[in-house]
Structures are given as structure tokens and as C-alpha cells.
Automatic annotation (TrEMBL):
Cofactor note: Mg(2+) is required for catalysis and for stabilizing the dimer. Binds a second Mg(2+) ion via substrate during catalysis.
Organism of this sequence: Ferruginivarius sediminum
Binding site for (2R)-2-phosphoglycerate: 162, 336, 365-366, 387
Keywords: Cytoplasm, Glycolysis, Lyase, Magnesium, Metal-binding, Pyruvate, Secreted
Entry protein name: Enolase
GO biological process: glycolytic process
Cytoplasm recorded as keyword: yes
Gene3D superfamilies according to UniProt: Enolase-like C-terminal domain, Enolase-like, N-terminal domain
Length: 427
């Protein structure tokens, strides 16, 4: 049973305050977790509780931490941590708001994840094994989606596209997928350096390139794959997060890097043109969260051959996923636990995706920490893909490296999920 819940303020990878929670059980087992934070958030997400005020840009979390230490600690006292559903229901009830704004999504997700880890510790199991239950040995590792270049809200809007990622669709296993990514990441750095386009690192550790257009990023990504000695589209493919809510609303999209505005159809045509000319297997948030019709038309046009992922659009919400599935507006979903606010609700979103025939990707946020829970969720829930940012910076490598350890514990190099488990990716 839960004996103590402790909240404290720690720091995230953008040097902003965030919430850490410890859950201690009566038997002494304990779990710890840190809330991540987004920068390009969907309007339907669970809301973080921030102090406002002059310090740290108004982003301090002293009220959220206090809520963990008093109300949440008291409310969870004596609950069975191995009953995640009961713990999360209690968290939801304590908060009492539909968007978790009273105690804060940041407080709730930290406690929810810490409780899951305490339950695993009580069973003397790693979290992934505890979540996977009896299905033990033949577990697979997720295919990584790894950021090469950052843009949008994560890189001063130098380009409009937010994530230009690579995914090792031809890799034999998880370890090889990372090996290849390391070569491509190094090649991309050398390429930009040689062109004088290296501008530092974006929020998720991808290069912050001085590209003159959005399409330049696609060309540079393909060239990086080639320079690494790999075949684009066969070994390594591109995956994009357009994060279109950041530059479009009411069906108008302003591509500042290209100096033009497009309507929803125009943006769809541009993306289809890119799909013809570049080895792209996945596109996230191709349209804004207020443009479900754009998603629907795009899915009808290319959803048979490309993974179309809802992030801001679906915000890890089971109801929204079912609605989108009913309209065929996407074929995959990003699962970000803090968008939902509790692990149980993130799991419900994943179940809704599976029932709807949607593919899924477990994802970290742009503001992260040393917490590696998402890697455990991807393995424990057997989600075929994982997105945690780039291949540089400790808060990112912590999560990729945890996958190597899990693969080893499973006795190998991490067998990947079948490519058919991804959303409509051509083979
Ligand atoms: P965020 O970005 O964490 O800033 O929301 C990540 C994403 O859009 O996938
Ligand atoms: Zn996104």
C-alpha cells in the first residue's frame, strides 16, 4: 500500500522547473518519476499547473509540488499501487477538473508514473516487465524515430517543419537501428558544417540548421543517409512532424521559411509532392488540430502508403482517437502520457488506437529529463515505435540507451516489430 508521496521541484532539459514525485510503499519499495513538458502543445492536452509570476518566466511549479505533498499524498495514502487503475482514478477524482488544471497534469503524471514504478519495484521487476505481465520473453523493441533537424517552435521557427526525423526501416534489430542513426547523425553534422549551415542544437537535440526553405531540410536528410553509406527509402526513411497547428489555423497555413501561405488543399498538395520525391514513411500533424477535414482528405489520398499520425490533433485521448478513426482522419497516433495526465488514460488511448486499427508511437516531449519511463512503456505495452527526439543530449540518449539495456535483458539486440505493425508504411 502507498505509505508516502513526495513531490519536489527539479529542472528539465530547457532549464525550466518541473515536478518530480516519489511514491513509497509500506514495504519500502519506491518509484520516482519526472513530468516532461511540451512547447508545441495541443489545446486538448491535460494542463500543467504553473505559478505565473515573475520567476522563471512564470513557469515555476511550487503549487503543483505542494499539491503532491499535501492533497495527493493524503488522497493516495493506503491505496494499492499495483492497482494502477485505482491510483489513477483517485488522482482524477482529487483533481476534479476535465483538463486536470486544478492539481496540474504535471503533478498527476509524475505521481501516476512514480506509482507504477513503485509497484514494479515491489514485484522486484523492471517497469517494462511488470507492464508486459505474463507475455515475458518474446517482447519486441520499438523502431526508433530519431530527429536529425529541429525546426518550428523548437528552433526559433528557422524553418516551419518541426521534426525532420529518420527511421531505420531496414534495420535487423534495435541495436542496428541506433548504429545506423549514429552514422547518419554524424554525417548530417559534417554536411551542415561543411556548408556553413550549422547553427547549434534545437530543443530536442537535433541540429538547428540555417536552411533557406523547408524542402532544404528534406534534401539534407536524404544526403546525410547517403553519406552514411545507407540507402534512402530502403535502410533509412524520413519521418516528419509538420506540427501544423504551430503555423496554421482556420485552414490557412503560413510557411514563413518559404515565404508563402497555403490553404488546406494547397498544403496537402505540397505534402503529396514531397511524398513523391522523398522517401517519407510517416507524417505527423500534417494539418492543424482545427482542420480534421484536412486530415480526412489527406488520409483518403495517401493513407494507404504513409503513416499519418495525430499528435496535437488527438492528444492521447481515447474519445478523439475513436472519432478520428470513424472519419478516417489519420491512421496512427502519438501516445504522450502527459497529454492524457495519467498512465491509465494513456493506456486507454492506446487501446482505442488498437481497436480502431491505428498504429501507435510512444513519445517523449520537447522538455525532458533523465526519466526513462517512456522506453519502458513502449516495451511493456508492445508499442511498435518510439520517438524521444534526437541522438544527442543526455535526456534523449538516456531513453535510447535504456532500450539497449532492455534488449539485453530480453537476451539479445532487440528484435523490432514487424514493419506491418507500423501505419501503412510501404515495404
Ligand atoms: P512538444 O513537441 O513536446 O513540444 O509538444 C513534440 C511533438 O510535437 O511531437
Ligand atoms: Zn508532434
Amino acid at each position: 500500500a502507498i505509505a508516502r508521496v513526495i513531490g519536489r521541484r527539479v529542472w528539465d532539459s530547457r532549464a525550466r522547473p518541473t515536478v518530480e514525485a516519489d511514491v513509497v510503499l509500506a514495504g519500502g519499495a519506491q518509484g520516482r518519476a519526472i513530468a516532461p513538458a511540451g512547447a508545441s502543445t495541443g489545446s486538448g492536452e491535460a494542463v500543467d499547473l504553473r505559478d505565473g509570476g515573475p520567476e522563471f518566466g512564470g513557469l515555476d511549479v511550487s503549487r503543483a509540488v505542494a499539491g503532491v505533498n499535501d492533497e495527493i499524498a493524503e488522497g493516495l495514502h493506503g491505496l494499492d499501487a499495483t492497482d494502477q487503475g485505482a491510483v489513477d482514478a483517485a488522482l482524477r477524482d482529487l483533481d476534479g477538473t476535465p483538463d486536470k488544471s486544478r492539481l496540474g497534469g504535471n503533478a498527476l503524471i509524475a505521481v501516476s508514473m512514480a506509482s507504477a514504478k513503485a509497484a514494479a519495484a515491489a514485484r522486484e521487476q523492471p517497469l517494462w516487465a511488470c507492464l508486459a505481465g505474463s507475455s515475458g520473453k518474446d517482447l519486441r523493441l520499438p523502431l526508433p524515430e530519431i530527429q536529425l533537424f529541429g525546426g518550428g517552435a523548437h528552433a526559433g521557427h528557422r524553418i516551419d517543419l518541426q521534426d525532420i526525423m529518420v527511421t531505420a526501416i531496414g534495420a535487423r534489430d534495435y541495436v542496428e537501428a541506433l548504429d545506423w542513426t549514429a552514422e547518419v547523425y554524424a554525417a548530417a553534422g559534417a554536411l551542415l558544417d561543411a556548408r556553413g549551415q550549422l547553427f547549434g542544437l534545437a530543443d530536442e537535440g537535433g541540429y538547428w540548421p540555417a536552411f533557406d526553405s523547408n524542402e532544404a531540410a528534406l534534401g539534407a536528410a536524404v544526403e546525410s543517409i547517403e553519406r552514411a553509406g545507407l540507402t534512402p527509402g530502403q535502410d533509412m526513411a524520413l519521418s516528419l512532424d509538420i506540427a501544423a497547428s504551430q503555423f496554421g489555423t482556420h485552414g490557412r497555413y503560413r510557411l514563413a521559411a518559404d515565404g508563402r501561405s497555403l490553404d488546406s488543399d494547397g498544403l496537402g498538395e505540397l505534402l503529396e509532392d514531397w511524398l513523391r520525391r522523398y522517401p517519407i514513411v510517416s507524417i505527423e500533424d500534417p494539418f492543424a488540430e482545427d482542420d480534421p477535414e484536412g486530415f480526412r482528405r489527406f488520409t483518403a489520398a495517401v493513407g494507404q502508403r504513409v503513416q499519418i499520425v495525430g499528435d496535437d490533433f488527438l492528444v492521447t485521448d481515447a474519445r478523439r482517437i475513436r472519432e478520428a478513426a470513424a472519419k478516417s482522419a489519420a491512421n496512427a497516433v502519438l501516445i504522450k502520457p502527459n497529454q492524457a495526465g495519467t498512465l491509465s488514460e494513456a493506456r486507454e488511448a492506446l487501446d482505442a488506437a488498437r481497436e480502431s486499427g491505428f498504429a501507435a508511437i510512444v513519445s517523449a516531449r520537447s522538455g525532458e529529463s533523465e526519466d526513462v519511463t517512456v522506453t519502458h512503456l513502449a516495451v511493456g505495452w508492445q508499442v511498435p515505435q518510439l520517438k524521444v527526439g534526437s541522438f544527442a543530449r543526455g535526456e534523449r540518449t538516456a531513453k535510447w540507451n535504456e532500450g539497449i539495456r532492455i534488449a539485453e535483458a530480453l537476451g539479445g539486440r532487440g528484435e523490432l516489430h514487424a514493419i506491418e505493425d507500423l501505419g501503412a508504411v510501404p515495404i
